[in-house]
Structures are given as structure tokens and as C-alpha cells.
Amino acid sequence: LRYKPDLIWSDGDWEAPDSYWNSTSFLAWLYNDSPVKDSVVVNDRWGRGCSCHHGGFYNCADKYRPGTLPDHKWEMCSSLDKLSWGYRSNLSLAEVMDEMSMIEELVQTVSLGGNYLLNVGPTKEGVIAPIFQERLLALGRWLDTNGEAIYESQPWRVQMENTTDTVWYTSKGPVVFAIFLLWPRDSFLHLSSPIPSPGTQVTLLGYAGTLKWEKSPGKGMLITLPYMLPSPLPPQSGWAVKLEGVQ
Asked: Which pTM does this prediction carry?
């Protein structure tokens, strides 16, 4: 009543059935009489056995990854600390998710139509540890360049390349985005799923100009990526090509 939340994320449902939590009565009030009844969204943790069955969107389980495109709204819940959802003073660097893993989880989740929830365990004073700040800022920088392929996107007719799990697709209307997690050694990106047309145009997000492409001998298209100078720094993870005029 006081805060009028847009989302209520319930947890701990496995401890008892929904009758113990009085979930159905609360949800009936929430959707029929509460001040947020027309706008609120809830997850699926409202009693033992509810997960993946009831809710505005499904969490199903922590770090849940569906193998195919779900037919219900869903969310992938992950944590930067691989071993905990709360703060741990004895955390080691090896137990923190790296930048590539974050981007990979985000891309796979969005390609399958999901929302990505990335957890950080703050200290008792409410401070986010520097290592977590660094990871979140890195993800933000990646989204500054590639966010067009993520924000307000929809799943495409194909979610990932059949030949690899390193190329994932999203779409916005007629525009298709192919997000590749590994840079090809020969700098040629082969996409077998898009069907190009004479007017097809290809661009790389964050790179000026258009990219050359040709039809593949089998099916799909072969895209010539820009030459990348060798760098002593670890390579960035994840790039997105924007495909216009494909089916």
C-alpha cells in the first residue's frame, strides 16, 4: 500500500504449501483490490510445487536454463558469487563469475525470451564490494555498445545456430541480431540460419560502416568481419551483427 511496487518477487516457497503461506488469498487481493492490481507482476514461488506452474513469470529454479524457447514469460536468476546469494567475507576471486560468463548468460537468456536477474550480495552496511562493482560496470560497458541487440528485443524464429552454441539471435521487427560469443579465427562469420536478399545490409554494433557479405555455398551467409589488431589485453567477450533485409 505504501510503496506500490511494480514487481513482487516471492521466495522460500519450498518450505511449506501455498495454504500455509495464504498465497491464494494474498494474490486474489493483489490482482483484484490492491492499488497495483492492473500493473503488478509476480514470480512463481508461492508454495511448494508452484514453481514453473503458477505466476506472472517463471523462475523455475535458481540458474534455470530452458533448452528451448519457453511458452511462458520467464527469468534466469544468477549470482556473481558462484557459491552464495549473500555477502561472504572469505570470497576468493576464482569464485566470482567472469565477464564472459555474465555476457554469455545474458545473451542466452534474452535470446530465449527471458529476463536476466543478476544478484550481488552487499555487505551489512549495504556496500557493494569492489569486485562486484567492476563486474557490473563491465557488463554496463558491453551493453553501451551492444544494448540495441538486447533491450526491447524479441526472440527470433531461430534462437541459436544449429552448429554451435556460440551464436545466438534476437530481433526487433524485421531487424535480426546475431550475437557471437567467440571471434572467428579467420574473421569470417558463417551464419546458416538467416536467408539473405540482394538488399541485405550488415553492420557490427560499435563499428562504423557496413560489412561485406556473400551467400554461403550451402545456405545462409558468410560475413567478413573487420580486422582486429593484436592486443596484450584479454579479448572482449561477445559481439553483435545487425542484419537488415534477411528472413
From this structure: 0.93
